Structures are given as structure tokens and as C-alpha cells.
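S.,

Sequence below, as promised.
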Amino acid sequence: MDLLQLRYFQVVARYEHMSRAAEELRVAQPSLSRTISRLETELGSPLFDRHGRRIRLNQYGAMFLRHVDRALSELADGSRAVREARDTGLGRVGVASETLLTITPLLGSFRAAHPRADVRLFQSDADGMSRRLRSGEVDFCVASQPLAGTSLESVELAREEVLLAVPLGHRLDGRESVTIPEIADEPFVTTRVGNWQRALLDRLFAAERLTPLLSCEGDEPGASQDMISAGLGIGFIPATSRQVGTHAPVAWVRMDAPDCRRVLTLVWNRGAYFSEAALRLKEFITSRPFMTHHLPDPRSEDDRGTL
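The prediction came back faster than expected:
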């Protein structure tokens, strides 16, 4: 058993798909399959259940993966520690977020305050963030929904109301508030499954035993405002978006629905190795207000056309 086999197994287990794993690892699929077969032979047990061309991690594979993740994470931490002891910089810190617009201003301020830090930023949905944390690819995630993992710790950064944004001139333009049944037949601009906007939309509609009508599903939550302004549908937008001036005017309506809010948390792996850059970023983020909590009335004329 060697390090290469373990790395290959980790990627195959992540995708449960040989072709995708081979593409990420940049190796030929037959070579990857032979490597996994040799590993299974050495362990004396299959790690995947095979159904034609499909593979699924079995109970032995899941058991082995937990140990492989820990072992490779420890090796990665050791390599980072050596590099940072050798270099004069603060080391590297990786951050993942569902939307880059949420974290970019704060990371820009951090880079200005700590120019020697090597900051890496990734965009991921909830499952992607959990995988990046487990693999050690990132140190922190800024999440708008709970992440899966028993070894994760988190701290709340902010919570804000989520409003309904509608195109100017829409039938709901001018309403103080609406309920979910009142918008059940409206087309929604939202994100794909795995992002917080979609999770909130599905949860609120499910509470009323309804299914939302979707007109657009995207990967970048920040792009929803422009599509709503263009008349492609309505959608849920964080209240702080009104404070950012854009060329995409919309009208704002409050939702008469329980718990229609976004809660931002900083998430990390318990017991993970942190570089000096990561330690300073954690202190930087948690020691100051992440966003403005006290917002003006969404029906104010001064705010009506801003995001």
C-alpha cells in the first residue's frame, strides 16, 4: 500500500465515478481501475459495490475512507508546517463560500492588512464545502446553511432577513408583505439544489405543501438580482443586498413566512492544523461585524431600486 493508492482511492470515493476521478487525477481510467483493484487485493476486501459501469462505496470502503482522510490530512498538515517554517510568509489559508460576493470584501480587507498571507478562495455548494473541509483543501467555509459532518465546529457571523424581490411594475410591487400561497404560481429565479437560496425556497414551500415553479436555476446567488430585474421571475434576496448599488432595480416585499432569514456561519474542522494566516483570518472575521444588522424599511423610496 502506498501514498498514491490512498490518494487515488480518496478521489474515487468522493466521486463514486471512475471517469470523473480519472479526469481530476489526470490519469487514464484503466490505470486508475487497476490501482483501486490492487488496493482492494491488499486489503482483502472490495471497497466498492459495482453494478455495471456504476460504483458505490460500500461499508468497508466508507470505514477505510475515514482513516484515509485522517491520514492524508495529517500528511498535508505536516507538509504545510514545514513549508511555513521555511518561508518568511504567514502561510496559506483557504476559504470556500456559496457566493463569492459575500466574502470578497472581507477577504480584500484581510489581504490589505496581511499582505504576506496567501489567500485562496473557492465557490462551492453545501456538499462541496463539506468535501473541501474534509480533504483539507480549505480551512474555513462561510456557509448560509448547515454543513454535514460530525467533526465540524462553527460560529455564527450574522443573521439577516430575506426579502422577496420582484421586477418593478410587477403585481406585487407596492405590497408590504405576502404569504407563500399568494406567490405559489409565480415563476422563481433561484439557485441549483445545494445552495442556500434553493434550500430556503424549498423549505418555505414544503411547509405549505406546495412546490415552487422555477423559471431559472443558476450557480451564483448574486446573479439572481439581475435576472429578477430583467423580468425573468421573482426570488428571495438577502436584505443587505439593498445596500449595494447596482444597475438592476427591483421592488422589495417582506415575506409573511416563519424563519425567512439567512444565517451566516464560519465553519472549520475540529482539531485541524491552522497556519498563521488561517489563525489571523479566523480572528479577523470573528472580531468584527460581518454585515450591517439594522437595515432600513424595504419599502423606503430611497432603497427601492438598489441591490
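The two ends are 55 Å apart (CA to CA).

Coffee later?
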